[in-house]
Fold this protein.
Amino acid sequence: MKLLLFLSTLMLLSFSCKKEEAPSGIVEENNMCICTEDYTPVCGEDGKTYSNACQAGCEKVKIKSKGECSK
């Protein structure tokens, strides 16, 4: 019984300590937006191709689709 109580408490503590993750690659400091340089192109609603979703997010552009925009 003590073992069950101990394991239950341990499990509850492990769930309560879970960190929230930052949005993918976006780090904002002093109004600067810093993204990784990985090339996973997305097409913005403005018709421009961005190198990744983070870059589009920095420009405050919603993503229309994955991949490059059609020309």
